[in-house]
Amino acid sequence: MESIKTDLLVIGAGSGxxxxxxxxxxxxxxxxxxxxxxxxxxCLNYGCVPSKALLAAGQAAHAMQAGAAMGVTPVAPDVDFAxxxxxVQAVIDTIKPVDSQERFExxxxxxxxxxxAFTGPQTVQAGAHEITARRIxxxxxxxxxxxxxxxxxxxxxxxxxxxxxxxxxxxxLLIIGGxxxxxxxxxxxxxxxCKVTVIEGQKALGRDDPEMAAIVLDxxxxxxxxxxxxxxxxxxxxxxxxxxxxATDGRVFKGSHLLVAVGRKANTDRLNLDAAGIESxxxxxxxxxxxxxxxxxxxxxxxxxxxxxxxxxxxxxAGLIIREVLFGLPAKAKTVHIPRATYTSPExxxxxxxxxxxxxxxxxxxxxxxxxxxxNDRAIATGHVTGAIKxxxxxxxxxxxxxxxxxxxxxxxxxxxxxxxxxxMSAVANMxxxxxxxxxxxxxxxxxxxxxxxxxxxxxxxxxxxxQRWLP
Length: 472
Ligand SMILES: Cc1cc2nc3c(=O)[nH]c(=O)nc-3n(C[C@H](O)[C@H](O)[C@H](O)COP(=O)(O)OP(=O)(O)OC[C@H]3O[C@@H](n4cnc5c(N)ncnc54)[C@H](O)[C@@H]3O)c2cc1C
Ligand SMILES: NC(=O)c1ccc[n+]([C@@H]2O[C@H](COP(=O)([O-])OP(=O)(O)OC[C@H]3O[C@@H](n4cnc5c(N)ncnc54)[C@H](O)[C@@H]3O)[C@@H](O)[C@H]2O)c1
Fold this sequence. Notes:
With 472 residues, the chain is of the alpha/beta class. It has helices spanning 15-26, 41-45, 48-63, 81-95, 101-107, 180-191, 210-222, 311-327, 355-362, 377-382, 408-420, 425-430, 440-455, 458-470, and strands at 2-11, 31-34, 110-112, 117-120, 123-126, 129-138, 142-144, 172-176, 195-199, 226-228, 233-239, 242-247, 252-255, 257-260, 264-266, 298-300, 339-342, 347-352, 366-372, 388-394, 397-405.
């Protein structure tokens, strides 16, 4: 057994762990990084990267049939499903070197390719290594939650960890779960030529603003995806190519393949948390606002910390941890400015409070500024007129924004900036966006907030008339 002493031990080389390790080592700390499986974690290997690459393949196929209104004769795409998967792998391979063991070793990190388990409050065993660290960061991520639905264990099924390896095109993909994973995978597969049925226990995209989510769901249905809501999967049976899912109300769904996408569970099983006095719940490791676990020398970040589960959250946590651990500056993790986006077409993006949440919190103080895509010239020119933005405003400052439509994921970033820095709506109104861009949608939403104040205001009209009388 090799004994190692280090300033910082990072457990897990996914989005969060890699960011902490890279930042800490470049600032002079000694860093050991443990990874039991693939460098890059979920996002690179089974999550964001392959899902966006597959969506892009679907988009390419869709574009071949979508140009009639612009004078381009639609043609049925000839989809080579295996080649689409080669594209997914090529995208992963292109990004991979950034997350590689070699790169981190070149930066000066000691990388150990083993799973880690606590043996004491500040000690972790990983294979034939025992590492004692001044501070430890748990960045072990999450795995697909597979619900205890009778029959599921005996029927061939996929999760996000296996679906990207499937090379033959599913004739009819059944997807249990209508969250972001379910809906992104539904559209990618539909556009690549599969029949798709989504079986959702409650409401598809149910965490999002219902009016804006409905715009996405309408488009997905129009694209041929069957979305069955209030359909909790109760029983699964069948064999490869012939699968049956029965919902609690007796509805029966038949398909050839099955994807399970009903949420995540934090990766804590292997960690032997009790040995370090670290408490966890079903959601993940219990942390305070500084991301400290119940053992104050041990932090948890990203999906393992059980809050919002996104790569940019893991990256944000990493920045806070570096500040706290390296400089001793306590940092508080906030969520008000954290955006999220679902990359269907149209995209659905959110930051801060939804309209319902803002109304609950602020009541009559809430004002909602709205602008529709069909008034944006770039949207008209490119045929992306379906969409809208809502900005929730209190006391002249945005407290939330929801965008549905083309490039919503890009457009939402501005509202994160505004909320993170306490900017007023006037700051967004003062911005000049190039014409014609989708970015003008953000400015026009700010304009929609000020319009009634300027144009329907008797006082403003009186002032203008008086000034006009006096002007030479
Ligand atoms: C299909 C899908 C699509 C997604 N799309 C997006 C998206 O578009 N945008 C977005 O922001 N987020 C997306 N996400 C979420 C995103 O992937 C996660 O939030 C992100 O990967 C979390 O990073 P992490 O560092 O916390 O964990 P991970 O990236 O999961 O990394 C954890 C690492 O720890 C390792 N590990 C676990 N236990 C141990 C141990 N005991 N010892 C050593 N190593 C260990 C694991 O092997 C893994 O490599 C998506 C997720 C899925 C499943
Ligand atoms: N674009 C992105 O940023 C992106 C994309 C994919 C995933 N993610 C991350 O991954 C997380 C997990 O995504 P997800 O879609 O797996 O989970 P989710 O929790 O967001 O959605 C799961 C859905 O499954 C439904 N469900 C649960 N049990 C069911 C059953 N027995 N029968 C039918 N429906 C059932 C739930 O009602 C819910 O709507 C997301 O919350 C997000 O943090 C992000």
